[in-house]
Write a structure and sequence with these properties.
Number of domains: 2
CATH superfamily of the largest domain: Uncharacterised protein YqeY/AIM41, N-terminal domain
Radius of gyration: 18 Å
Number of helices: 7
Order of helices and strands: HHHHHHH
Structural class: mainly alpha
Strand content: under 5%
CATH class of the largest domain: Mainly Alpha
Largest sheet: none
Distance between the termini: 41 Å
CATH topology of the largest domain: Hypothetical Protein Yqey, Chain: A, domain1
Shape: globular
């Protein structure tokens, strides 16, 4: 389980005195704990690994946005720190699909959902998110779906 993997990584970072890795893994575990607390009152509890992958994806996106802001502000040392955190977070993510694999997955989802036009885009994206959580950039996938549906 991903949760156990994160706890083991935190222990290893403590032993190896890797400050950046330890801080990043602690941030991940804190975000997971926050989500656990918010889900206590909910009847709809998602799969644990899927929930953690969702959190990791959001954390990576936040850091990429921060990198852009830091670079525009001339704070290259902070941008580098964010890049290091992204590398650590990506250690817990599944392998990302290549552009060709994303195109193939989109074509498969279009066939599977029998999408006819742009009105079916939500259905296609839902199928992709269910099958490829954490494995693709859904922003790029959305653009690919849009282009194939409008063609």
């Amino acid at each position: 389980m991903l949760r156990d993997e994160l706890k083991d990584a935190m222990k290893a970072a403590m032993k190896d005195k890797e400050a950046r890795k330890l801080a990043t893994v602690r941030l991940i575990l804190a975000a997971v704990k926050d989500r656990d607390i918010s889900l206590r009152t909910s009847d709809d509890v998602p799969d644990d690994d899927k929930m953690i992958l969702d959190i990791l994806g959001k954390m990576i996106k936040q850091r990429r946005d921060s990198i852009t802001a830091y670079e525009e502000g001339g704070r290259c040392e902070l941008a580098e720190q964010e890049r290091e955190e992204i590398a650590i977070i990506e250690m817990f993510m599944p392998r990302q699909l290549s552009d060709d694999e994303v195109t193939s997955a989109v074509a498969e989802a279009l066939t599977q959902t029998q999408a006819q036009g742009l009105k079916d885009m939500g259905k296609v994206m839902g199928a992709l998110k269910a099958k490829y959580a954490g494995q693709m950039d859904f922003g790029k996938a959305g653009a690919a779906v849009r282009s194939q549906l409008s063609a």
